[in-house]
User: Fold these one by one.
Assistant:
Number 1:
Amino acid sequence: MLKNYLTSAFRNFLRHKSFTLLNVISLSLGMAASLLIWQYVKYERSFDTFHSKAKDIYRIQYNGWQNGKLRFECAAAVPAVGPALKNNFPEVKQFTRLYPVSGVVSYETPNHDLISFLEQKMQITDPAVFEVFDFKLVNGNQQTALQGPDKAVISQRAAKKYFGEADPIGKTISWNGRRKFEVTGIFKDIPQNSHIKFDILFSYQTLNNQTKNASETAWGWYDFNTYVLLQPGTDVKLLQAKWDDYLLKTRGEEWQKYSRREEFILQPLLGIHLHANLLQESQPEERGDGDSVYALTIIALFILVIAWVNYINLATAKSFDRANEVGVRKVMGAEKGQLIKQFLAESFLVNFLAALLAVVIVRLAWPAFSSLSGRSIPIEYFLQKDFWILIASLLAAGALLSGSYPALVLSSFKPVTVLKGKVMRTSQGNILRKSLVVFQFVASVMLISGSIIVYQQLNFMKNQNLGVNINETIVLKGPGVTDSLYAQKIENFRAGILRIPGIKNMTASTNVPGDEIFWANGIKRLVGGPETAISGYTVGIDHDYVSSFNLKIVAGRSFDVQHQNERKKVILNRAMAEVLDFKDPKMAVGEKVIQSDTLEIVGVLENYHQMSLKETVAPLVFRYAPDFSNFYAIKIESKDYQRILASLEEPWKTYFPGNPMDYFFLDKFFNRQYESDRQFGQVFSIFTGLAIFIACLGLFGLASFMTIQRTKEIGIRKALGSTSANIILLLSKGFIQLVLVANLIAWPLAWWIMNSWLRSFPYRIDIHPVLFIVAGMGVVIIAFLSVGFQTFKAARVNPANTLKYE
């Protein structure tokens, strides 16, 4: 019986090659697009799942409140939190802290060659890091590797970089030329789908010794990413409530004294990558976006459903051509159930062929899609069992969903009526077909509108006036290895490079625009203002910083080498002046504030965007610190970047030997904050286009079939004097009306969804109604072209050819 079903199906496919090909292409594109998107979604959801105890690991989120207002939400907590949880709550099995550091790491070979690299991904951590996380040592003892001071554990990648094929265990590396560490272990390279990455771990006891145990007991130093491992089955909400009560009892008196409150929230490890958007994230440039993942999942479903709708529409429209076949089969004894099986078998075969083609498309498109999405999606996903289970599921679902209704329609024909040629088209069938077409184009209009709004918002953020000049700026990362003559060397370096043609000026600072500021402490007016200290972020700058970045001074002056005792002076931005209750920036100049010392305000800067427009302008404090510099921003006048970079190498080596020269272009560095949004926009737009293309394939096929069915009507109309334009308008009118109805449904839906998305941006565009009209007209034109091609061909046919046998 199955053989008969398959034989009949193949015969039907061969009789209607174009119909079959259209269905296979439409379904294969829909499946391929959905498979690609779902692999991306799978990858985004896979972050940190490689830890065997991931469901029981929580990060401590630190929220700071002052005078009843939430001042910040931070991914880094204070060092005392971990021990407090472990020692007071049996639900907490273990904890670990990671304190991020960077600098120049060096290894002196037996031949006295010095191998040095500027390392950005290093952490100081507790020995328990290997108990909490599954960072596996391939060499060394994980219980003892980080016990005691001056111990280091390195990744396989770092071992290869510094030691080649030699065994690193027992060898010594130095950090910034000042402290030496014994290598006691090697761990596997951190997987890409980890929210925290590092190549070198230093023992925590080293930091404890340096800070006289402040890194163990401090409640005000929040630079420590703290993780706790809970006992399996712990009620996290109950533990959080008990923890909050404990904090109120032990810390409440101090909070009340300074009108502040602190929250230390248990945040699930598995939610960090997609749903955490906090200060001091471990890998902010690789942070995921749960909303984007959700949006792409919806797009994948839209594309798949649009492809299935195409099959249903074409199959039901064509069902009347097969009415005689059904009638003969029923007269010959075929039962309704057998006919349903026959048509489901045809649906299965079409979906099977589409699935095979989809697998080929996915394999070919995988590298390009990975590049487009900005994620290194492992090709191994293609070989995993769940990938093939997903394909099988799509095949089964597609065969049933797209084949069931046409099978029921075809099998329901009465043989007597059919064989007399009296098959009538039911209004229910027409309504369903029209409804499905409307659904397809509702989805298309919504996707086009969404793509335009995403592009406009991204363009708005990238082109908005930042209040700071980041163009034509090369930034050198400051030297990690310095000595007592560093202050003089930096001035000599500055004087040396200013003689290079094309270099305008140089400024040294602890941060540059686009670099998250970690230097935070309280600031309070000496007289007046808020009663308690305000938490503020501080940038250390030199006398050229304000002029180099074209920052606007609204009151007072900038730092000046001609003035004495500038280290006792401070500059605020307007936001900080307002937080300190200065009604006018001019009122702040000459006033004094307390920030670890008593400082005089000498100037107020206009607000500028230190970070992207996804963040609000933060209150900032600027301190004079020319010899405490992480970055050298060099303003250039020449476009000959390679010559200038080559010219910088000699003075760099002269004044900062032992330091690799590392640089970046500031505009690209700043705009990297929009990279994930840009990639999302690209993916969104491409799959929007694919969804519209698939919808138009269905419309094209449907129009072709309808046109063929009305061939004689067209011939009669032309014989009676109708023009080709009239014929085209007649045949297109029904489809265009459906697309217009789709527009009316899609516009309010698209506005509501995209307006909700835009609310997450503090600086955003306004959605203009014209945008929806443009998107809607675009879909109308595309639909008209899809239908018009077929109707134009039909309208051009000589009526004598269509009516000669009548």
Number 2:
Amino acid sequence: MTIDWVALDRGATILDGTAGLIVLDAEGRTLYERDPDATLPAASVIKIPILMSVYADAADGRLSLDERVAVGQHLPGTGVLGRVSGVTDLTVRDHATLMTIVSDNTSTNRLMERLGTERIAERMREWGCIRTELRRKMFDFEAANRGFDNVATPRELAALLLRLVRGELVDRATSDAVLAVLEGTQDDGLIRRYLPARTRVAHKTGSL
């Protein structure tokens, strides 16, 4: 695949906003970057380190992916649980899948409660995330109004994905399991839109 870096830079320049971008190869070499250390609102992309924390803790024996967790209060926004009120509980694995592939906010909050935000923050620090922070649950507008927003930098998110590609999330099997979940992301309107059909893409979208 040939990438037109000039076109990428031009597209970032004309955006009505701030673009932070970084492109790495599988060896970790930087192929392109534009303000990669900018701290930006993370939206649902913050669900990547949550997903990684779930699978890392499961691999370490801290929890079971088969453990059932109540659905609890349904949240608006992206996802499906708010529209299927008959579902009362799901496995940790199913919550993680819904959080990722359809960006379900209800499942996201249940996983944050199960692991604890400090445990997820501990994992993120362990993985070198200094500026990327999980500060609040989904749809916690009170916290958001107090300035507690979830934020991330392109460089740190790319480093998390590179860890998966290299098989360094606990081990190769755990890394591949997370990549498989990310490949199931249903949003085809962004990066997949510009790629050939059947291209394998492990990704997570987010928007505000």
Number 3:
Amino acid sequence: MSARDHPRQTRRSLIRVVQPLFGESGWEAPRALSCVAVSLLLLFLFLVQGLAQAQVKPIRRVLVLSDLGTISSPGFAEADQALFAGLQKSPYQIEFYNEALELTLFSDEGSQRRIHKDFIRKYSDRRLDLIIAAGSASLSFLESNKGFLRNTPIVFCAVLENISAQPNRNMHITGVLGRLHPMETLDAALHLAPFTKHVVVVGGMGTFDEPWEAIARQAFRKYEPQVQFTYVTDLTMPALLERLKHLPSNTIVYHTAITQDAAGNHFIDSTQSVPLVASAANAPVFVMDDVDLRDGTVGGDLVNWANDGRAAADMAVRILNGERPEDIPVVASKHAYMFDWRALQRWGLKESDLPPSSIVLNRPPSFWQLYKRYVLAGVLMLVAQALVIVALLWQWARRRNAENELAIMYDRHRLAMESGRAVGWEWDLKTGRNSWFGDLKTMFGIATETHVGPVEDFYGYVHPEDRKPVSDAVANARINHRPYAAEFRVVWPDGTVRWVTAKGKFCYSPSGEPERMLGMAQDITQRKLAEEALHESEERLRLAVQAGRMYAFEWDTASDVIVRSGQCRDILNWMDDPTLDTGRQFAARVHPGDREEYTATETGHTAENPVYQTTFRMLRPDDSVIWLEESGHAFFDDQGRLQRIIGMVADVTERKLAEEALSSVSRRLIEAQEQERARIARELHDDLSQRMALLSISLEQFEGGMPDLSSQARQHLHKIAEAATEVSSNIHDLSHQLHPYKLDTLGLVASLENFCREFCGQHNLQVQFVHHDSPGQIPKDVTICLFRIVQEALRNVVKHSGAAEAKVELSGHGDRVDLVISDSGAGFSPESAEGGTGLGLISMRERLRVVGGQLSIESEPSNGTRIRVRIPLPATNAQVTSEGKARQAGA
């Protein structure tokens, strides 16, 4: 059994000793003290055994040979520390040997030969398990003196690519191959300082310095066309520093390595040369490795010596554990972009221009980094206090809400009692105490909100005629365990009578005895009055329907069944014949002249326009004709389908007969008026007009036969003749206005055109006459009606509108003729004009009613007026008009 298995065996022994001290369900109390003592003893033995095993770990000898000593090179010092720390992970006790060639202090060949001989003599008789070569010179020395190594495995690190020869694969060797990155550093520098024109490369003359300068020089060759490079490597340190103080603008400095200057003075590059160069240069200084990133240098793509040491230590541990170096591949060293924040700030370089994933060192800690713990502690305290406050506020809010809800419920109860004119009661049957609360003023006329007294007080307010029914309802509810309900009247102290409805219930003890009664009463006087008013209204409606000869109906369109009220029998003179109770049968009894219009009205309902009214004639069973006026409302389902129609039908036969009689009288009056106009016009034209013409001729003859008249007399005679001529013209115009004879000879179109032209000459109004598709033959009464409407409309324009222009438009449409008179004047309110004292609009409507025409007026104040006239033409005239249009189209 190996030493590594001893701890496992000890643990199993410890378990076997401790296990009997435990029961199936856990630790047994009587054995507690003894178990603790035994456990501590076993733990002590286990630790002692572990220490003994640690002391007998096998020994392995490891030699670290570096180019420079740890004192003269911080980079190699970091690699050594990483190597030492990594080797501690091995399962062996390491004898650590550290040697250095000291290339900077003893760079001459004689010194190096002596160091080599001393090294070989020192370790010739020492059996080494592993050699770690830190640096290119150390690796070259080992490769050239492999005889004394006796096949000792070698791990190299801090070996730069392109400097040393590739590792000799005939030896037992592997390691970490490093590479400097001057080209990447220069790319980052040019991106940070894009206006750079000069690059000054500084270096030394030591054995360690020349290879670093050679790497930089080779990498910068491709940048030479765009940037000027100056290599300063052969100066003494004072001369170099003085030159760096006076560099031109737009310059950057790239530091390689200075371990020896031109005077032969030695320097530790990282701790001495780099700080001197960075402090003297008046331009930003970029470096090659991470140990050179010190105060004043900017940084770059840097080699990390500690990473090389850690990687080499991992390889060393694997070789000590038995792996062959040949089986472990050579790896490349790690590098990273690293920059100093203070140097970036000094030279005004933007951190945002750094390459991605760059590491920025020495950045001042932020407020959060400095005081994060205090801020978090304060926030936690504030949050805790806030939570406590929120909890208290929540409790307070809950209590406040409960109080508010209780107040709201009380207010709702009170408002419900007041708005509903209600009161509540609680009757304690054991004590006889009856408590009333609520709107007692409305209920009983008591000016208090509460009342306590015996139940007899309640019966004292009940109307004498209702006391027994109320008492019986209470007793019935009490005996039968049923809710109590009653409607009765109450009498106020002042004699006012109110109607009340009351509901309540009894509460019983476990033994079944009633203990108390709860209830609510509400004033229903308004409802009772409304019911009485409704009853009276229904009665009045019934009487009105009987007197007005009307009946109601409901038509179910799906089944085509019509249900009518009883008055239809008297109006339609139908008996109870079920064959007449459908919409189709009802439509068949409509007068043939009105049947098409009635059917279109009945089937043309829409959900947007469900209300209608129509007038039609109906044939009774005895073939008599009556006029009916139907008003209805159509109802539709969600899909817009007609479901039913409800409406009223009234017998308007007498009204229609009266309208026909009135129309006949109006027609005769208008005809008599036109005849009288024609007679007066004829008298004026044939009599007075002729006489005035003879008077004018006589005056002219008198003037010609009196040559001796004075000039004054002749002038006076001329004035008399002009007056006679003017009177004759006025008589002629008056005759024409009373009866236009041109209507009989020239027709409507020519007469209107001539009238509009004459009207323009007589008044300060421009009238435009337009006609389209003029009817061929128009009845005489229609012609006179249209002419009189134009006359009256144009007179109103001159009198009231103040317009300067008007338009008269006449058009034929086959079965009708349309007339439109419009102006752009002041306008008026048609409703006000209808109710005025003027006869203009009344005359127009009366004339149109006689010929079956329609009149519509569109007018608003300040927006002008438009009068539309539509008169239907008889069938023969419509046919003539259509033929005229056809002839015009053919032409």
Number 4:
Amino acid sequence: MLLQEIRKHAHMVAIYAVWYNFLRIHKTLRVTPAMAAACPKRYGLAQIVEAMDADTPAKKRGPYKVRSE
């Protein structure tokens, strides 16, 4: 149970880091930190979600078992 909570926390920290660096425009820079570090464009939330989904392997389900009653 504790390991699962630690994993959830690590995922939330990663999501916050992506938001902070790729989505949020900073007042002093007037761009995102990723754009200031030579990233060519500002990413949208939909593009970030698509990249996360593409990275996740598809789960294969096994064949259904017929119940004998």
